[in-house]
Write a structure and sequence with these properties.
The complex is a heterodimer of chains A (about 180) and B (about 850). Chain A contains nine helices and no strands. By secondary structure, chain A is mostly helical. In chain A, helix 6 packs across helix 9. The radius of gyration of chain A is 18 Å and the shape is globular. Helices cover about 40% and strands about 15% of the residues of chain B. In chain B, strand 17 and strand 18 form a beta hairpin. Chain B folds into six domains: about 50 residues, no CATH class; about 80 residues, Phosphorylase Kinase, domain 1 (2-Layer Sandwich), CATH 3.30.200; about 230 residues, Orthogonal Bundle (Transferase(Phosphotransferase), domain 1); about 110 residues, no CATH class; about 80 residues, Immunoglobulin-like, CATH 2.60.40; about 230 residues, paralog of FGE (formylglycine-generating enzyme), CATH 3.90.1580. In chain B, strands 1-2-3-4-6-5 form a six-stranded antiparallel β-sheet. By secondary structure, chain B is of the alpha+beta class. Chain B is globular. Classes of the chains: A mainly alpha (about 180), B alpha+beta (about 850). Chains A and B meet through helix 2, helix 4, helix 5, helix 6 and helix 7 of A and helix 1, helix 3, helix 6, helix 23 and helix 24 of B.
């Protein structure tokens, strides 16, 4: 256990960001943009600036924790997860600071915009956590549909199930979450 | 709430949601009892869904629903009292209604007002109704009337009680009682299916006789009444063969599973009534096996399979299907329309013969013929690689793009856009982006496919002009490549490698788009570009011959031995690529290692110990008898394993993954850098049983170095999979991900904890390599799950251009600890140099038995 760990100076000198991430970033820039736009479809949440900053934050988070992705679906699943984390973390920080709807950064405004339609994000997140303990598949679908803005067909393709199944799962999850939040 | 209760709750709520509001409470009582926690929970969920607004209701609106999801239909239309929604079709909402004038229940399809603003959509909607109204058949849903009231376009149809065939298939899979056909495992099921498809075939034949091709035959467009009798519905994208013009806006919006190859290819004029024969054949296949013949996780993958993959034999999935019925089904879904039944009526007749125990006309496809088809496909794979020129044709992406391009406009657009792109590139070849190249590629393909009734005959002048444009571009590229090589030869530039790489790329592209085999006019440069190999053997003075076994990108396996020469081997030019190097003393002693040789010459020096340290004892390894590895045909991430049959020689394989303990000994001995993970989180090293956890966060290069240090190598994908299939008792293919979920392997990891430390995660997810059996190995551990295992095989992925990953990527197999929670494949691509995948990927060593 005590043997010293050899180090690799080249690797230590640079922040390690595998080169495939750059490729991936190029490849999926449009993907991220689409997701961000989807999240911002509500009228109250502003424009391109927010979409861009959300996207960048999502990318940085994913890059710093990359496990490598097997394919686009895996990537989209990871992104859905990252988007959820970003929004919820900001919502939490915002609540802690007592920021009102127009205060602070672009992301604050974004959170306000999203919450205008989703309700309290922190509570929604807690409800999702609870749902995840009972039914992780349902949470995955909700994340893809709402946090990665995939269409029902795309959710179905990403998870390898039928669109009907996706719709059923979504409907049930929506009812369960709303019941819990109301 | 436990899992079983949760499932009960979910099933009860889902079922209740399918019912009219007033019946829901009763259904819940019946399913869950009138009181209790579950019943209350269910009531709360239903109430929450009925309340307007609320969280998640409006966030990211249902962009995918074509029929305006937010809109609510009125209560009445003309003499119709609208009762409730039955479903949403390709272009409208379908409602149950009470027609007061005739006192009967009907179904009403309404075009939502948002769509009614578009005159083209209204025209399509009316055309659909007109066409459907023209045909009367007991197995086609009758259209009673077309109307316009309160600003809404609608038509009135016969109401069919029951459910559609898609739902029926789901119910058969679930094995529930609500099904309308006999149970899948009962004796009556197969005759019932044959009868059902015969009825549908007759209905289609009737429509075809009225010059109406359905073009979207699929389970959800076949309704079953309560007697289990089928009714075909939704001629929504039907094309009127007499009008000749296609109406296909929604074709790609739906599921692609039932599209015929000619629909995928979109040579619009070739799609005739036999496309319906095909789609019905696919429905029959699905009913016989309860699985789709061509499935995939992306549209591109499905489309590629529709074009290229022979369906698995029906009897392989359901041995109870008689050979004759199988032959009928396979004939209906032949890739070429000419090999199918000529008419839907003929298909109906053959099903009739089957039901009457007469010999059917369809002949079983002989093994020889299937073999020939496979051989043809393989030949195409080989040719695609050999000439790189056609490498992208099979790419699913391109197929998809082609489909889109053709659906949006026609070949002319491809040509116009492609010629423009070719001119752009010719102006500055090195500055053009990939999307411009893609447009040229699309043009090239359009021209290559233009035989028959394609572009060539439609517009020969346009085709000739486009060809000339590509020739010109090819010449420009060759010249540009020569310039780059000239610069590289001058060698003054520090960018020499980049210049050479550019030149090679330009030459390849020039060859791809030009008609003649463009070669550099500086042929002699190529020798200088070859990489070189030197072999140093310890103890020095050992006499041995050195052989190369180049890896084959299609098979993912090393090819036959090529003699390089006797020792000493110094700076010997070798072809670029990924090669296994075998040093053979001729007396049973040999060593092997695998190296990549890059096209831009950099000398590779291999140092080898003879005999290798492992040879005497092969500690921890098990000997595996080689054999035949049949093509799995499964939706694998690797084309090789899915489509090519492989022979594997005898070999040795570690019983377990390489653990941290031995890996640390390797680091101590060689001074190689430790995995980044070990330095990022020293707590990891103190994790319980750390030395026995599989080593992770190793790059391909690290893994190869470790193997060689032990005198071994990584296994090839065929070796690994041969063992895995044997061990798992599934000789034809790795088991499907669903089955893996239920297995005892370490595949049950929870969703990745984003805020845990590495050490916490390692403890939570990874399992010790000793966890299966201690002491002497009795079998292989953790082939499935725990960590992805790296192989030395290059990758060829389904749905991507052959060689898309070059030699720089390797296949990893078996899934990691999260395999059971991911719906993915057990094959993954690993790129050279990547360090990611930190808790996900490890490896074990292998060694050949004979040199």
């Amino acid at each position: 256990m005590s043997s010293p760990i050899p180090s690799d100076p080249a690797r230590d000198a640079r922040p390690s960001r595998p080169s495939h991430l750059d490729e991936l970033f190029d490849l999926t820039y449009a993907e991220l943009h689409r997701i961000a736009r989807g999240l911002l479809r509500s009228p109250t949440s502003g424009g391109t600036h927010q979409a861009t900053s959300l996207m960048h934050e999502a990318f940085v988070r994913m890059a710093s924790r990359s496990e490598g992705w097997n394919d686009r679906e895996h990537f989209v699943r990871s992104i859905a997860c990252a988007m959820r984390r970003i929004l919820v973390d900001h919502a939490r920080a915002r609540a802690a600071r007592g920021v009102r709807r127009d205060g602070g950064s672009e992301l604050d405004a974004l959170v306000a915009g999203v919450e205008a339609v989703s309700g309290d994000l922190v509570r929604l997140d807690e409800a999702l956590e609870a749902l995840g303990r009972l039914d992780p598949d349902a949470v995955r679908i909700v994340e893809l549909r709402y946090f990665a803005s995939l269409s029902v067909e795309e959710c179905a393709a990403a998870l390898g199930i039928s669109t009907r199944q996706v719709e059923r799962e979504l409907q049930f999850a929506r009812g369960w979450l709303r019941g819990r939040l109301s | 709430m436990n899992e079983a209760e949760w499932k009960r709750l979910k099933a009860a709520v889902s079922r209740a949601l399918d019912l009219p509001e007033e019946e829901r409470a009763r259904a819940l009582d019946a399913a869950l009892g009138p009181t209790g926690a579950l019943r209350e929970e269910a009531a709360r969920i239903l109430a929450a869904l009925q309340a307007p607004g609320g969280p998640l209701g409006t966030l990211a609106p249902e962009s995918s629903a074509p029929a305006g999801a937010g809109w609510r239909p009125p209560d009445r239309l003309a003499d119709l009292a609208l009762l409730r929604e039955l479903g949403r079709g390709s272009m409208g909402v379908v409602l149950l209604a009470w027609q007061e004038s005739l006192a009967r229940e009907v179904a009403v399809k309404i075009l939502p007002p948002a769509d009614a603003a578009d005159p083209a959509v209204v025209e399509r909607f009316a055309a659909e109704a007109r066409k459907a109204a023209r045909i009367q058949h007991p197995a086609i849903v009758t259209v009673h009337a077309v109307g316009f009231d309160s600003g809404l376009h609608y038509f009135v149809m016969e109401r069919v009680e029951g459910h559609d065939l898609g739902r029926e298939i789901e119910l058969q899979i679930a094995g529930t009682r609500e099904r309308l056909l006999p149970a899948f495992h009962s004796r009556d099921y197969l005759p019932a299916v044959a009868r059902l498809c015969r009825t549908v075939a007759l209905a289609l034949a009737h429509a075809h006789a009225h010059a109406l091709v359905h073009r979207d035959v699929k389970p959800s467009n076949v309704l079953l009444d309560t007697q289990g009798q089928p009714r075909v519905v939704d001629f929504g994208i039907a094309r009127d063969a007499r009008e000749g013009e296609l109406v296909s806006r929604s074709r790609l919006e739906g599921t692609p599973y039932y599209m015929s190859p000619e629909q995928v290819r979109i040579r619009g004029q070739h799609v005739d009534h036999r496309t319906d024969v095909y789609s019905l054949g696919i429905v029959l296949y699905e009913l016989l096996t309860l699985r789709r013949p061509f499935d995939g996780r992306t549209t591109g993958e499905v489309l590629r399979k529709i074009l290229d993959v022979e369906p698995r034999l029906v009897r392989r999935d359901n041995p109870r299907v008689p050979r004759d019925l199988e032959a009928v089904c396979l004939k209906a879904i032949a890739k070429s329309p000419d090999e199918r039944y000529a008419t839907a009526a003929e298909l109906a007749q053959d099903l009739e013969r089957f039901l009457g125990h007469e010999a059917v006309q369809a002949r079983p496809v002989s093994a020889l013929r299937r073999g020939a088809r496979t051989a043809l496909r393989r030949w195409r794979l080989g040719a695609a690689l050999g000439s790189a020129a056609t490498a992208a044709i099979l790419g699913g992406l391109l197929v998809e793009r082609q489909v889109e391009a053709a659906a949006a406009g026609r070949a002319r657009d491809v040509v116009a856009v492609g010629v423009e792109a070719a001119r752009t590139i010719a102006r500055d070849p090195r500055a053009s982006d990939e999307s411009t190249w893609d447009r040229v590629e699309a043009l090239r393909q359009e021209l290559a496919h233009a035989g028959g009734a394609g572009l060539e005959s439609l517009a020969p002048e346009l085709a000739a002009a486009a060809r000339a444009e590509l020739e010109r571009l090819s010449t420009v590229l060759t010249a540009e490549a020569d310039l780059a090589l000239e610069r590289a030869r001058a060698n003054a530039s520090p960018d020499r490698e980049r210049d050479v790489a550019d030149a090679l790329r330009l030459l390849e592209r020039s060859r791809r788009i030009g008609s003649r085999d463009a070669t550099s006019t500086r042929g002699e440069t190529s020798e200088a570009l070859l990489p070189r190999l030197s072999v140093r053997v310890r103890p020095p003075g050992t006499a041995a011959t050195v052989h190369l076994r180049p890896f084959d990108l299609v098979r993912g396996e090393p090819g036959p031995r090529v003699l390089l020469g006797e020792l000493p081997i110094e700076s010997r030019p070798v072809p670029p690529g990924w090669h296994r190097i075998v040093v053979d003393c001729g007396d049973g002693r040999f060593a092997e290692c695998t190296r990549e040789f890059e096209a831009v010459g950099r000398d590779v020096v291999v140092e080898i110990q003879l005999p290798p340290p492992l040879a005497e004892a092969a500690r921890g390894m098990l000997r595996v008898k080689g054999g035949r590895l049949p093509a799995s045909g499964a939706a694998d991430r690797s084309c090789q394993l899915a489509e090519v049959e492989l022979e594997v020689a005898d070999f040795l394989l570690d019983a377990r993954e390489v653990a941290n303990g031995p890996y640390r000994a390797f680091l101590d001995a060689t001074g190689r850098p430790a995995p980044l993970l070990w330095r990022e989180d020293p707590a990891l090293l103190a994790a319980p049983d750390f030395d026995r956890l599989p080593v992770v966060d190793v790059s391909i290069e690290d893994a190869i170095a470790y193997c060689e240090w032990r005198g071994a190598r990584l296994p090839t994908h065929a070796e690994w999979e041969l063992v895995a299939r044997r061990e798992l008792g599934s000789p034809a293919a790795l088991p499907a991900a669903e089955l893996v979920r239920g297995s005892s392997a370490n595949v049950h990891g929870a969703a990745f904890a984003l805020d845990a430390s590495h050490a916490e995660r390692a403890a939570r997810y990874l399992r010790s390599v000793r966890a299966v059996a201690d002491g002497d190995p009795v079998g292989f551990a953790h082939l499935l799950g725990n960590v992805w295992e790296l192989t030395e095989s290059p990758v060829c992925v389904a749905g991507e251009p052959r060689g898309a990953h070059g030699t720089a990527a390797r296949l990893a197999l078996g899934g990691a600890w999260d395999a059971g929670t991911q719906h993915g494949s057990l094959h993954a691509v690993v790129h050279s140099g990547t360090k990611g995948a930190f808790l996900m990927r490890g490896f074990r060593c292998a060694k050949s038995v004979d040199p």
